[in-house]
Amino acid sequence: MPTPNLVDVINGATPLEMTLAEVHPRLHLNAERLELLRTRKDREPWKTMIDQVRRHADHATTQIRAGQTQGRGGPGGRLPEVALAFLLDGKVEHLEAARDIMRHTCTFEGTDGHGSFGGCWLYGLAIGYDWLFGILDPQTLATTRDYINRRGREHYQKLADYSTITATWYTCNHLPNYIYDLAAGGLALYDDVPHMAPWIKLASEKTRQMIDALGPDGVSQEGVGYGEFYAEYLVKTVDLINDVLGVDLFAQSDWLRNTGFYHLYSSLPRRDWAPRDSVMCFGDGVRYHWHGPDTFLLRLAGYTRDPRLQWFALEVNREGLTAGSYINPIWYDPTVPAIAPGQVDAAAPTPLPPTRHFPDQGLSVLRSDWNGHESVLGFHCAPFSGHKATRDFNADIGGGHMHPDAGSVLLFAHGDWLLCDTGYSQKLTAYRNTILVNGIGQTGERSVWFEGVELRRERRGPRIMRTESGPGGSAPKWESIAADLTQAYEHAAKAKRIERHVVYIRPDCWILIDRVAAEAASTFDLYFHSDHAFVAGEAPGVHRAGGKKGALTLRSLAAQASAFIVEKQVIEGISGHGGPPMDVLRVRNAVPAAEALFVTVLEAHAADAPSKVTATLAYADPRAAVVELVVDGQPWRVELTGSGEAGLRVAGGE
Fold this sequence. Notes:
alpha+beta, Beta-galactosidase, Chain A, domain 5, eight-stranded antiparallel β-sheet, five-stranded antiparallel β-sheet, elongated
């Protein structure tokens, strides 16, 4: 057994101090795991994962030979793939490439985003140093060791003295990237460089702070794309702390146990996945995966032993929706079966419910089923950074990529986006499928990065009041959501009540009931965005937006006369993101009023099929409504009589 380092004490009881101080590799990989990969590298699914590693290694080798060294996706970021490819196949060109990448990376002296940090290079150097320790020439190892120590301490000091805002951005996507850099660097150099214990303890405690700050439901308030970035580096850091420091932070985090389901439910139907179109995302983001999610899903599936997460990770990887990672073959646990959400097995005796509510971040995802071509509606309504953050913090712990989108809906059905939003754009309520009052939106808008300082000062925000479901087991015939959006709005809007009720009648009918009121006569605008142009139907208040495969028929019923505006909305992007003008339908009360009530019936169907839903407003005033529908030949009645959390009744489908 190695002699414990009695000078540089972490706490005296970590595996690193007791048995691993002189052992390499120890970051994610060890001798036993490496031997397992060598024996299984020609067997699936390891072969596919390792082939991805080889492709990245070959590309990075070509880049470094051509003198291309920088960039987040450059050879510095792919150093772990190059190192692992060498360890598995023994090709000299990969060892030489690893050496050259490490030497070149150690010349970078830029600031965050251009140097080691933000470019995802410091952890790569740490892994290269650890995995190739005793294989690379002493000079390369010494140069790398000195660089990691110097650059790592620069950022360690910024975090330790709180001179950088990232020190308290516990749920912002950047922080776990920096902490992973520090954790990997410190754990790789321990016992080779003095005074590493404070550095390692800071990385460990910052990780604990992140876990304590995260809400329980696993959702990122910054959207799926940035949530993937956050989760990948957080899970990698937690994995290192688990293995090398002997502390199981997975067991201490509800967020980590649930985040895999956030990504699973946010995925589009399996048979509709496409390389640039597979994700439903609220907040800044795009419709495809940025980081993982197969990377962290494989680790979480192995830890929780959940077959649904294992299936999702393997399917995303197999479909080529992700670039793969050096960590995938290491983290894949073959003892966890892979079972699709709608299937049953001894390891998963009941189907996964098609609807899931994530209460802390106010996200609801309602699917028709899990048949692979289902309809999916997403609904979002939560205070700034979620309920836990609003309750426990008055600081911004990381919500810059949020949007003022309380009450917004997204709809994908019959293979097409039928209701969408403007994605990665300026923070404007008018870019989301929700409501404006006299042209005034929700607090925090008109900024590049979402700023909720007024929301934080006043401890206010919107909320989901109630969720209900009817008969039918895990896939009930109907479900409903009641949301109070009022506290999301700017004070200048003078909103007294902005409520949105969502009623879902499976499989393809949704009813939005919006009950709104202001201090004075006002105009209320309901926004609906689509990938397809809205065309007025033959009947008043009916509009259709159709794609190549699916179509939306939108029926607007109201207690008052309404006006309809069909237009192209110019979208202002940020940071090089943005897109072409969006098709939008606005529904508004034709005459300003202090109160109004809108009922919008959404029906999804095949593009070449007619509408099959009929709907009438049997009774309505600004505060109550009775909607009578026929859906697939079955009569339904939706009655909204009370206010707030009470008063919605749904009957029918018999």
